[in-house]
Write the structure tokens for this entry.
Amino acid sequence: MSSVRVLVGTRKGAFILTSDGKREKWEVSGPHFGGWEVYHMKGSPVDPDRLYASQSTGWHGQVMQRSNDGGHTWEPVGNKFVYDGVPGTHQWYDGKPHPWEFKRVWHLEPSLTDAETVYAGVEDAAIFRSTDGGKNWQELPGLRGHGTGPQWQPGAGGMCLHTILLDPANPQRMYIAISAAGAFRTDDGGVTWQPINRGLVSPFLPNPTAEVGHCVHHVAMHPSRPDVLFMQKHWDVMRSDDAGENWREVSGNLPTDFGFVIDVHAHEPETIYVAPIKSDGEHYPPDGKLRIYRSRTGGNEWEALTNGLPQSNCYVNVLRDAMAVDSLYSCGVYFGTTGGQVYASADAGDHWAPIVHDLPAVLSVEVQTLS
Amino acid sequence: MIRVVLPAHLRTLARVPGEVELTVEGPVTQRSVLDALEARYPMLSGTLRDHVTQQRRPFVRFFACEEDLSHESPDALLPERVASGEEPYLVVGAIAGG
């Protein structure tokens, strides 16, 4: 029988939640790496028991962990992230040049074809790759070395590379996103990159349609249609049908188009989910009602999903990597909150229930569907 | 034999229950002690000092013999009582936050 494993990164450690395919009863394991921030954990599609975790603190910096048994045991691996060559500068908050400084790993993306290969998106923004299971890391310098690099500027959360999407149909193609530089694509395996931000409008920029500088919060893709991308931007929910060459807004009837997460149904490429947040100054749901919004039309037409979610006095946030879907029938949808809840829906969002109530603030949620 | 006391998070990471005992060849300095520590516990590399600059991480402090040695040169000799193993070299996570 199928089962699911939910990997939860929090401000104070990692938790692993497991259930059978009914997704009604859950076992909770953790905290792993207690007291450390775990920005992200993700399993290899090739070997689901191979997990990677990013663990950090302000005191001791970055530690990388690897498990070969589905998270029962862990071993520290390499944490040496050194920018290629002379790092150079990007812009600081005041617009002045600031040297590139490694701070932490925000996102891990294991290869679709090799359990030993994994990509890391880091702050200050860059992408690294390991081909030996996380022991050694090498930067793909063509991204940071893109001509616009000196113009990149941190968002409020730092200048982080938070999204990595691997194209299952084209091993040479990857998408990444950076706050606050925008989205980029490579078509040659990470050697060269191009900004893919045409159609994004950011009124806070001197040039609102600039090539870079957009605060992209998250990007999602359905593996069956890797040219179709969905983006939650600082404000605006966007869609591209041509691998990011052009974007159009699909915020439609959302109560607010500010938010962090966006994800796609496992079996319906036009069904997408967002968690609207009131504003950039008020990072909580509008009206104190926690509502996930679902569009079955690839955007523009949205319905509120509320069954089982708190509909009064709820002032949590859902961070950019804190939503995921399983691939069971019907599709399970999961998200975590800064209030420490992880909610699950086993019916594509129609009904929700919390798996756990009182974890530390949730930074990331990933799901593995196991057979 | 040099005795080193690590903060709780790093004891967990290195999987050591208490004090670490190290053999240090040559002069006993912050640098030689940390080199020996990282050689024996590679998972601690980068958690006490920066991989590239080798500078102490800002929220890591070094104490011994009731003195704050954090700002000493990494190549300054540590107190004789540390070198002899009479006193431990304390690695401390700075108290930070509200």
